[in-house]
Design goal:
Order of helices and strands: HHHHHHHHHHHEHHEHEHHEH
Number of strands: 4
Low-confidence stretches: 12-20, 230-235
CATH class of the largest domain: Mainly Alpha
Strand order of the largest sheet: 1-2
CATH topology of the largest domain: Lysozyme
Largest sheet: 2 strands, antiparallel
Strand content: 5-15%
Shape: elongated
Mean pLDDT: 83
Radius of gyration: 28 Å
Helix content: 40-55%
């Protein structure tokens, strides 16, 4: 009886192996883009034959194709901007699929853990990468700011781990989690780290990297012309323009003759449709075809400069710059240049400058 059981298990194992091999062959035919995708993520091509990856594709392929199409329709206007930023900063534009996995290209997506935006930044990580998060403005919802922060984070992770698929997994579960997994597995091989029996990584992360690779294969099949599905393409690129603090987006929408709701959707980082007052100018996103209408119809008032009436003298020392002198006296570099008829910011040692200052600084120097 035991002999029969062992024989049956052997037959079952061989059958499973053959089915897996045949399905992997069909994956090659179905997704010719896999060689490009795997290369961009530093994944060995043999991973296409990984039994657990094959099982994942078989189980989730249909749902992820639907998810891909929904995400693409939601994000098609911002994708060219995101892809351009990725390529400019040395990250493969296939990391666009990481944002798809994270948020489905919803600029104001919020996770149960309170991560927000296209790239799902937690508040602490957002702050670390200089993203403003406050009641009136959340840069995690801004396409350019959030994508730039994600690029910096991904480059940092790649520098730490040396392979892009490891950077992607660390983006999901954290650097410490991936480091511990590699130490326990004694390898950074993807098929070992994602093994469902050993569980070196959390289940969510094991699924995450498979989902990322499959979505990239689905998407790149279309992009590289391997698929006849032309249901979606990337159109209507966007551009950023400067507006004054306090500007109402509904007024900009009226100037551009576009729907207010569409402009609000492109600028989810601007709360309540009102540009914040924290800085003199802010950038907002508009469709590129509206660019000429914007510059023709939107007038930016020239802010009035209030020059200071008090002056102090200063002799330039070795190593000083216009900026350092301005900082010393809480002054403005442009006002110093105008007051001293300077054509540029070059200074000569022992030159005497007059510095326009506030009354409090004047009184402090006079003492």
């Amino acid at each position: 009886m035991r002999t029969f059981i062992r024989y049956f298990k052997s037959i079952l194992f061989l059958y499973t192996l053959c089915v897996s091999f045949i399905y992997a062959i069909s994956l090659e035919d179905k997704y010719p883009s896999y060689t490009y995708v795997f290369n961009e993520f530093d994944v060995d091509e043999s991973y296409l034959y990984d039994e657990e990856f094959i099982s994942f594709v078989s189980k989730y392929e249909k749902n992820l194709k639907s998810f891909y199409k929904r995400s693409l329709r939601r994000g098609k206007e911002i994708l060219p901007t995101m892809q351009g930023l990725l390529v400019d900063d040395g990250v493969s534009d296939l990391f666009i699929y990481l944002s798809m996995v994270e948020s489905g290209f919803s600029t104001d997506a919020v996770s149960p853990k309170k991560a927000v935006g296209l790239w799902q930044f937690m508040p602490a990580t957002a702050k670390h990468y200089n993203l403003t998060v406050c009641n009136s403005y959340d840069e995690r919802c801004d396409t350019v700011s959030a994508t730039s922060a994600a690029i910096n984070y991904l480059n940092k992770l790649h520098k730490q781990f040396g392979k892009w698929y490891l950077a992607a997994m660390a983006y999901n579960c954290g650097e410490g989690c991936v480091s511990r997994a590699i130490n326990r597995a004694r390898t950074d091989e993807l098929s070992v780290l994602t093994d469902e029996r050993s569980k070196y990584l959390p289940h969510e992360t094991r699924q995450y990297i498979k989902k990322l690779l499959l979505l990239a294969m689905i998407g790149e099949n279309l992009t590289l012309g391997f698929s006849n599905d032309k249901s979606d393409n990337l159109e209507n690129p966007l551009i950023e323009v400067d507006v004054l603090a306090g500007t109402l987006l509904k007024e900009i929408a009226a100037l551009l003759k576009m729907e207010e709701e569409k402009l609000l959707n492109l600028n989810r980082s601007v709360k309540n449709g009102v540009v914040p007052h924290d800085k003199p100018m802010y950038k907002i996103t508009i469709p590129i075809e509206k660019m000429y209408a914007f510059y023709l119809r939107y007038e930016q008032p020239v802010p009035q400069k209030h020059y200071k009436s008090h002056m102090v003298s200063h002799n330039v020392s070795l190593g000083e710059t216009l900026e350092s002198i301005a900082k010393q006296y809480e002054a403005d570099t442009e006002e110093i240049k105008i007051s001293n008829h300077l054509a540029d910011e070059f200074l000569t040692v022992d030159d005497m400058l007059v510095i326009p200052v506030k009354q409090t600084i004047f009184e402090k120097v006079a003492k």
